[in-house]
Design brief:
Helix content: 55-70%
Distance between the termini: 72 Å
Number of strands: 8
Shape: elongated
Number of helices: 27
Strand content: 5-15%
Structural class: alpha/beta
Radius of gyration: 29 Å
């Protein structure tokens, strides 16, 4: 796998680069639509701020996108996958478990910003119509496009994904050409590539520092770029970035040239982007921009699915149904998250109505994500034994830049930034509750050695005074150890009502591996014809049809004489040689007999509420309901002390 992964990431192909341009750079590629609009909205254009903004944008793209993400962070892949959770999974074995907190915070705030990115991108493109039709109401059109986009997710992007790359190449080519045309009118703006102009604006201009909140919008897609790395390979992203960065810089420089020609005026209701579009091709520009923003939104939604799937595998998010609708590498679909994002996006459009108001709220959450990823990258570089002085310098540099952006972005809280902060905090709380609840539950889960119960299970199997419960009794166990199962499973067989008599007891453990594909199993015969332990190893993209796989395994074992059915009388009446099966799934509930503090009680009750909303174990493992038994058992974490009940 590691060899395949390194080949995948080192290979540079035209197809891979097209996928990278189509999927990875959508968010960062559509920011010229709104970045300079956010800087100059309701402000008079001045030379110092126009040149200072271009300078700050150029160096932000260099430090935040090129240096931090494209050069450094893309090195950190976990089995080919990127994203803040992959980064955490990569370093958790070297450093303390506390790193889960920055990882959870980073992931939560990235998803929160994912709720505002599609509306702002699509709205900023559609609002171009207002230059031709003043007062045009864009809200219904933006909502219609977003609903269409989310409804389409369940079909996968296999077919349409093929046009994403070429469409985005057209977009980047288009913004480069219109930028170069506008720039040709005033080449002197290129002097703004000197960082002195950024310094002049931020330090010498009154209130200049606060412009960083708007400047930051040029790099918001950098974190999504890392999340989507698994789709197309590291080097394809790096090569594509050269072309994309040139296109972005040309577009921003062209917009700045227009601003320089209109010093002392305001930009009006239209983004500087549309001011540099020649009027003859306005409608073409609008169509290309709208298509680009739809593709950018698609990339962000895919990134959110990837993040949630990784969170599920890290046990920090409730288990949802995860589907793989297409054959594109890394592509998946999570219905619950899809509809949650859709409702969030529609809510944003209805609340803010126009992109200029969304810009005020945008970027605050992703700044927090970037600070968290800088923290994790620091530990990754240390794990890779990079010179400590160099690591300290890199970390210090990015923390300084990102803290400046964070301080400048804090002004956005009152203007709507509180919404993404609140959503991010709620998502973090969900992750924390699930992680803590799972940890608490696992900590009190006692395991029992099966060998201690072999004599009693063998005796029970042949005790005809007890009615037979099933020919084959199958328990799903979370224990990865072949000789052990949960104590409550043993209690279910022996101590819960009438003992459960069966001819054969099967204990089945399902292990989801880090590989996308692969399906193998291992059988441990504890007592022939009486007790077996089966472990299934499934790739994380394989459908877990445990009922179907289990029957296959048993048929094979009978064929190989590992299970002897020749002496079973009742089989004469049945068509199959295996007999009947009963699958038992044990499901806990929070007992009333718990004596917990308010905080523990809140965590555990919230955990069980989330569990109620998550996908059920039997659905997750593909078990047929016709031969399924779900048993509830009470979970007691802190039992009550001495009984104070007194008899009169």
């Amino acid at each position: 796998m590691h060899a395949n992964t390194s080949t995948f990431h080192s290979k540079i192909t035209l197809a891979g680069s097209l996928i990278a341009i189509g999927i990875v750079f959508g968010d960062i590629g559509t920011s010229p639509l709104y970045t300079l609009n956010a800087v100059f909205h309701d402000k008079v254009i001045s030379e110092a701020i126009a040149l200072g903004s271009l300078s700050a944008i150029f160096w932000t793209l260099f430090f935040q996108t090129t240096l931090k993400y494209v050069i450094i962070t893309l090195q950190a892949d976990n089995n080919g996958e990127g994203g803040i959770f992959s980064l955490y999974a990569l370093i958790r074995r070297y450093f303390g478990k506390w790193l889960i907190f920055p990882a959870m915070a980073g992931g939560a705030f990235l998803i929160a910003d994912g709720i505002i990115t599609p509306p702002i991108s699509v709205a900023s493109a559609i609002e171009g119509v207002q230059s031709v039709v003043p007062g045009f109401n864009t809200v219904p059109f933006v909502i219609a496009i977003l609903i269409g986009l989310f409804v389409f997710q369940q079909f996968g992007t296999d077919k349409i994904g093929k046009i994403f790359g070429p469409a985005m190449v057209v977009w980047f080519g288009f913004i480069a050409v219109i930028g170069a045309m506008a720039l040709a009118e005033n080449l002197s703006v290129l002097k703004a590539l000197n960082p002195y102009y950024a310094y002049k604006m931020l330090v010498l201009e009154p209130g200049g520092f606060w412009f960083l909140g708007s400047i930051f919008l040029c790099t918001t897609g950098a974190e999504a770029l890392y999340s989507d790395m698994g789709h197309c390979g590291r080097n394809n992203i790096r090569i594509s970035w050269i072309f994309i960065k040139i296109a972005l810089v040309l577009c921003y420089a062209g917009q700045t040239a227009w601003l320089m020609d209109h010093v002392g005026e305001t930009i009006g209701t239209l983004s500087p982007f549309y001011h540099i579009v020649p009027p003859q091709i306005f409608w073409l520009a609008l169509i290309i921009a709208t298509l680009a923003t739809i593709i950018a939104s698609q990339a962000l939604i895919s990134g959110c699915f990837t993040l949630i799937n990784e969170a599920i595998r890290l046990d920090i998010w409730p288990r949802h149904l995860v589907l793989f609708p297409g054959n594109i590498k890394g592509q998946l679909y999570i219905p619950a998250i899809n509809w949650f994002l859709m409702m969030g996006c529609i809510g944003m459009v209805l609340y803010f109505k126009e992109s200029t108001k969304m810009e005020a709220a945008f970027g605050l959450s992703v700044t927090l994500t970037m600070i968290m990823s800088t923290l994790l990258i620091n530990f990754y570089l240390r794990a890779k034994r990079v010179n400590l002085l160099l690591v300290s310098f890199i970390t210090g540099l990015f923390i300084c830049i990102e803290m400046s952006f964070l301080i400048a972005n804090l002004q956005k809280i009152a203007e709507g930034g509180w919404i993404t902060l609140l959503i991010g905090a709620l998502l973090f709380m969900v992750m924390f509750v699930w992680w803590k609840g799972k940890k608490t539950k696992n900590a009190i889960m006692a395991l029992a050695a099966i060998e201690n119960y072999i004599p009693v299970l063998k005796q029970l199997s042949i005790d005809e005074s007890i009615p037979k419960f099933a020919t084959n009794l199958v328990f799903l166990t979370a224990s990865p150890s072949k000789g052990k199962v949960e104590q409550n499973v043993i209690d279910s067989i022996l101590n819960q009502g009438t003992p459960k008599r069966a001819d054969i007891y099967w204990f089945v453990h399902v292990n989801v591996t880090n590989e996308p594909y692969g399906l193998n199993y291992d059988v441990d015969t504890l007592v022939k014809n009486d007790i077996y332990f089966i472990e299934f190893n499934l790739g994380f993209r394989e459908e877990p049809r445990i009922d179907f796989y289990f029957r296959q395994v048993v048929s094979e074992m009978i064929k190989n004489k590992e299970v002897d059915v020749s002496e079973r009388k009742e089989f004469n009446y049945q068509k199959n040689t295996i007999g009947d099966f009963k699958f038992v799934v044990r499901d806990s509930f929070l007992s009333f007999d718990n004596n917990m503090t308010f905080w523990k009680n809140f965590i555990m009750k919230s955990f069980y509420n989330l569990k109620y909303l998550s996908v059920k174990e039997e659905v997750n493992f593909g078990l047929d309901r016709s031969n399924l038994i779900i048993e509830k058992y009470p979970l007691i974490i802190y039992p009550y002390g001495a009984n104070k009940l007194v008899r009169k």
